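user:
I keep going back and forth on a fold encoding question. Separate attempts, laid side by side, tell us more than any discussion would. Would you put together a sequence-and-structure record for a protein of your own picking? Write it directly below this note and I will take it from there.

assistant:
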Amino acid sequence: MNKVSKILFGISGVSILCFIVTRLLVGGWIPFLWIPLSFFVCCFIGALVQERKTIAAFMTMKTTKHGMNMGALIGMVFVALVVVNFLSVRHYKVWDFSGAQSNTLSDQSIKLVKGLKSELSIRFFYKKGVEGNEENRKNFRELIKKYQDQTDNIKLEFVEVNERPDLAEEYGVTKGSGVIFLDYKGRRNRVEKIEEQEVTSALVKATREKDKNIYFTVGHGEHDLNEPKEALGLNALKVMLENNRYTVKIQATNLNAKIPDDADVVMIVAPTQKFLPYEIEGLEEYLKRGGSLLIALKAKQSQGLDALLVKVGLEPMNNYVMNLVDTPMGKGVQQGQTLGTVFSSTNEITKIFGKSEATIFRNPMSFKRGKVPEGISIDDLVKAPENSMSFNNLDLKDESGPKGAFTLVAEAKGKFPGGIGKDFEMIVAGDADFLGNQLLMQSLNRDLVLNSVASLAKEENLISIAPREAQVTKMQMTDSNFYLFLFLFAIPVPILLLGTSVTLWMRRRHA
């Protein structure tokens, strides 16, 4: 390198240094910066021209060619890694190897999310310093990431209450333990728990185009919708339905037998007075139009509705079904509450219920299938376990009644006789107390009610999703298998590896 080249390289180095320092000090571009930048470019190019012969000789050297080949290879590998990482971020596939598929969204959730037509905004409100908030935020972010993997229409935002008091006031947030809201097309819904079934249920409510109307019949001694304290009151049911964005109304069929056209579901709960023939005709006309009806009866109190049930192929048995239990004195009758533990494995309402779970009824009656008209199908939604018995009276004196898995809740659907409209759907239960304030929230009663209403309202997406629990894989070994594992693997393998290591070390030391 000659003297001129050294001077030019030195000037270019000082120029670029001045350019960088000035740029950092000023914090922006000023016209003066063109001067050091121009000096750098001119001097650096001049130095390269002065050393062109040296550079040309260097480029023709064998070691240079090998080095450039290696550099080119390294550059190609680097570019390939960048492309692969970019594509893996934009387009990736997740495999869930957990036994219960606990890391994968259900088909219902995936279908719902992929159907989003516009942006879904999710806001998680929290306060700094509140215990458990960081863990909740992490868990919620991981859960929503599964939804975001299915669509680009989900936006997640974490809002600190003290930093955004305007948003907190708008949403009515006063606590900081983690409050979640979903907003979609101006409709807002709240998520109570960080679980897939809660998020999906809230999403269904937020995406619902209009509220569904549920009419309760009155005028026949039905349980009171506005009674919040009595065990048999239905206020808890009313509140639960309204929280799920159902509009609850009443219909006095004894005064006006025609069911309103805007009725999505009609519910008859525990009538104690007989329905008159013209009221039955009104219900039949509603079913012929493709209506949805839920009937919950007290045992041995069909109140004229058996005439309607017979037309769809169901007959009330007018009995009392009770479970038999094993006691130190032998088998006995479990009085009061009756468990329903056998669920339809094919019906959307009950197929998510586990085998070890149960619904609770109070002295229910059962149903049997009669002559089922053509075009109507019947499904036994809930049945008592095989170890159950039917009684004619609650004094239980007759212990020779039939035993078996009696049907406690049944569903009938199809074309109602004489109907020309849509298919009807009817769910009938042999007990009404499981809808009351006392039993509604016990075991699977709440899920059975909400799933039934969702099915009747033609909102299958609102049917609850069973929580997925991680399955534990246990390895159980007999004594003989344990000793074989111990003496054939656990002890010999470490000794073999240790011996090999010592041998190699000794050979290298004395080589």
